[in-house]
Fold this protein.
Amino acid sequence: MQKSFHLVLLVAILPVVQAADWPPGKPSSSKVFNGRKTETFRHGVSPQWGYKVAQEDAFVVVHPKLSRKNAPLYVVLHSAGHDVFSCVNCTKTVGNHDIYRSPDDHYAIYLDCRKNRNDWWWGGMHRGDKGLRERNSGGETMPVEKRVIDTVGWAVKRYGIDPNRIYLSGNSMGGSGALGIGMRHGDIFAAIKANVPAGVEHVSERLFFDSENLPEGLVLPDPPICVNYSAQNDGWSYGHDHFFAAMERRNYALFFYWGPFGHANNSARINKVNDLIDSFDWLSVRKDEAYPVFTGATSNSKLPWPDDLKSSEAGQVNGFFRWKNVEDSTKRLAMSLFLVSPENLKTRFEIPVNAQADVSLRRLQNFTLKAGELFRWQFGEAKGESKVDPRGLITVKGLNVTNTPRVLMIHAGQGPG
């Protein structure tokens, strides 16, 4: 009843306006909500988005509590049970879809896909959406995705957003959308976070996970770092074994947490099952900094998918790895790698003192090598030589990472002797 009252309160004050073409001009409503300036914009469609019929959409912009220049942007995709206005109303109550709540020092933008029923974030790719699955399969960019990307670009220009600190989040259907839309746009989003995503089919289609390689001629930017927390006892989590395998095969950065917390959205309740879901500071990731990808880590828990869905155990993938950039110049790359220490992370999980993993390097800013080129590496006392793989990816296999930081150094060319 409380939620319904808030919904009526927010929607009732919005005037009925004639939707303009894209982009929007003045907000249709501007007020203080939950202690922050909040603007609502209504707009029509851009011809470039590819909608077959005209439609009206709305989005809400929430300002930082204290005005600041070059602020980061927190982008929210709502669940199937919400629209943009009820989504914003959730932020008034702790425990009510906590992932919707943006940090006080960020701008936030809340988009809508409820009003136009066939315009859902995931494109209807879950096995439960039989009428939409065939129509929306494949890797083609859907109109809703183009609308999201253009809306983010509009916000960056209008509010002077830091283009290197744009983050995409979503719950349930919005979590599926965050994966499916966000992973294709590493040129836009620094990192993404998906709370119990309702299906991984969308991202599997968009990134061609069923294929060994991307279609010929398709070159994707290095993807955002992905945080995903899902429950093995949630029917919407079906297929996460395939998702994990594809992320490993593609050397995409993944922090993955699970446990028997169902299709939950209350962070405090989820933390009682798996207290790692908020342990990685995803909002500190910058798009203009290199990052490591850890694959095949010996510290990973065993996945409950597909054969142990009744498991009562919580688990993680890559949950304890951390890093710090040291140098990214034309001459060399240097990055400190380490495991988080028990002093810096209080958790019910046993934090390992060391873990072996293959480490790939993405989003390099200045240090570049071409596919097939030789490089030298050193990590503590370990050192060796290797070649850049056919995808242009630098990978060092079998590094022993400990809770004592050590610098991984990469140099071009072959070593002496």
